[in-house]
Design a protein that fits this description.
Helix content: 10-25%
CATH superfamily of the largest domain: FAD/NAD(P)-binding domain
Radius of gyration: 22 Å
Cofactor: FAD
CATH class of the largest domain: Alpha Beta
InterPro entries: FAD-oxidoreductase/Apoptosis, FAD/NAD-bd_sf, FAD/NAD-binding_dom
Largest sheet: 5 strands, parallel
Protein name: FAD-dependent oxidoreductase
CATH architecture of the largest domain: 3-Layer(bba) Sandwich
Structural class: alpha/beta
Shape: globular
Number of domains: 3
Bound molecules: flavin-adenine dinucleotide
Keywords: FAD, Flavoprotein, Oxidoreductase
Number of helices: 9
Distance between the termini: 61 Å
GO molecular function: oxidoreductase activity, acting on NAD(P)H
């Protein structure tokens, strides 16, 4: 087989792995080469702050089934450094050149480093994105080789999904957690007021939240980190975990002609805008949807997009049906303080919130509607899964009045 006959996938997270596996499942018999930015074979990244950090599981135990797909070439760790779409060539950091028939970009995102800082991050200021990050945190906390931590003090800057989940997990392992959050009610922009208020109560019970505050500075010693908040308060801990959002991994695409402002811009079939034979999937992809292009960061969407990109590749090579536009609703599931949290579709800022009375203890499900009262998303806590009728209502953006009886619609607030 000539090198030009292969599909190159850059990135071996769930999106890249699902793409490679789908190409084979659907009978593609050309070469499939995956460029790996990490030493590990594809593993479950959602476990980085759960079983990897708190229980010390290794990436080997959490390897994805897609990694066993036959006849996929998983290159040894290397990084894509440049793309030349005219020559259909990717250059790797090792100097290797990969010619491709089709290229799928699945390079994900990385943790946003210490905001505004150009200085190197000292040892006790960490981020949490990879299995190596989890192992490093465990080692700094002196937990290596032990099943559970059960001691230490961790300061977390940022109370979004990763900061909040990690606070919940560490406090469950009897670690003292200081949680510094800029918002007075963390995550109210994503979860809505009901669920966010419930979550803040749990943070208050189990951790030490410092809300409406940010980190103004820190000094890191050999075995402690000292953090100064913007109100002058000082905190001391074993580690400062910076959980301040993420940045798409697109630097290597600068100069390629692709639109890489906040991720790789793709059309609804996940074809990159600006180059033939190039596709993107997962956290790095900014998908053209109505009313605006959007990047989503969640496990289910990354997997579904990886599969969808493979089908678009096969179609464009004349080897399969057109998959049509990618239309799966984003679903983010998580567990905080023992309660399942599920987000469906679009939620949060700019949308109106309506609480739907239910019979599950805890905050009611909140649905989110746009300016025309059409359903756009929902957030539930403690509910095993959304009713199919609600999922369909969000998918088809039906008016809220079609979902709720008039009495409940009367509860609209915001
Ligand atoms: C700690 C944590 C907890 C999470 N929990 C949840 C959860 O509970 N529920 C949920 O739905 N989602 C969760 N997520 C989000 C979810 O894990 C991601 O949305 C998903 O893993 C994204 O997959 P991906 O394949 O697009 O990107 P990634 O998994 O980020 O994979 C991208 C890969 O590309 C590699 N790469 C980057 N640049 C290059 C390059 N130039 N060359 C070669 N390789 C490169 C990277 O090293 C990485 O291996 C969590 C994420 C984290 C970090």
């Amino acid at each position: 087989m000539k090198q030009e006959d292969r599909v190159v996938v850059v990135g071996s997270g769930i999106a890249g792995a699902a793409c490679a596996a789908t190409l084979r499942e659907r009978g593609y018999d050309g070469g499939v080469t995956v460029v790996r930015g990490e030493d590990a074979l594809p593993y479950n990244r959602t476990a980085v702050n759960t079983t990897m950090l708190s229980a010390g599981h290794s990436h080997v135990e959490l390897t994805l089934p897609e990694a066993q797909t036959p006849d996929v070439e998983w290159l040894a760790r290397d990084e894509a450094e440049a793309l030349d779409p005219a020559r259909r060539e990717v250059r790797l950091a090792s100097g290797k050149l990969l010619r491709y028939r089709a290229l799928v970009i699945a390079t994900g995102v990385r943790a946003r480093p210490w905001p505004g800082s150009a200085c190197p991050v000292p040892e006790r200021v960490v981020t949490l994105r990879t299995s190596a990050d989890a192992a490093r945190m465990r080692s700094l906390l002196g937990w290596s080789g032990k099943p559970l931590g059960r001691h230490g003090r961790v300061i977390i800057m940022g109370a979004g999904f990763i900061g909040g989940e990690t606070a919940s997990l560490l406090s469950g392992a009897e670690v003292e957690v200081d949680l510094v959050a800029r918002q007075p009610v963390p995550m109210s922009d994503r979860l809505g007021r009901n669920a966010a208020s419930w979550l803040l109560e749990r943070h208050n019970e189990h951790a030490h939240p410092h809300v409406g505050r940010t980190v103004a500075g820190w000094t890191s010693g050999e075995d402690r980190v000292m953090v100064r908040l913007d109100d002058g308060r000082r905190l001391a801990g074993d580690l400062l975990l910076v959980a301040a959002g993420s940045l798409p991994n697109t630097e290597w695409l600068q100069g390629s002609g692709l639109d890489v402002e906040d991720g790789v811009a793709v059309d609804p079939s996940l074809r990159a805008i600006g180059a033939d034979g190039v596709y993107a999937a997962g956290d790095v992809a900014r998908v053209a949807t109505t009313p605006r292009a959007r990047r989503t960061e969640n496990w289910a969407s990354a997997r579904a997009q990886g599969r969808h990109a493979a089908r678009s590749v096969l179609h464009d090579l004349g080897l399969g049906e057109a998959p049509g536009p990618f239309s799966e609703l984003p679903v983010y599931t998580s567990k905080m303080y023992g309660t399942k949290l599920t987000l469906l579709g679009e939620t949060g800022a700019g949308l109106r919130q309506t609480a739907i009375p239910g019979d599950v203890p805890g905050p009611p499900t909140t649905v989110f509607t746009d300016e025309r009262e059409r359903l756009r998303g929902a957030v539930a806590m403690g509910v095993p899964q959304f009713e199919d009728s609600l999922v369909e209502a969000v998918r088809h953006r039906i008016p809220l009045s079609g979902l709720l009886p008039a009495a409940a619609v009367g509860k609209v607030h915001n």
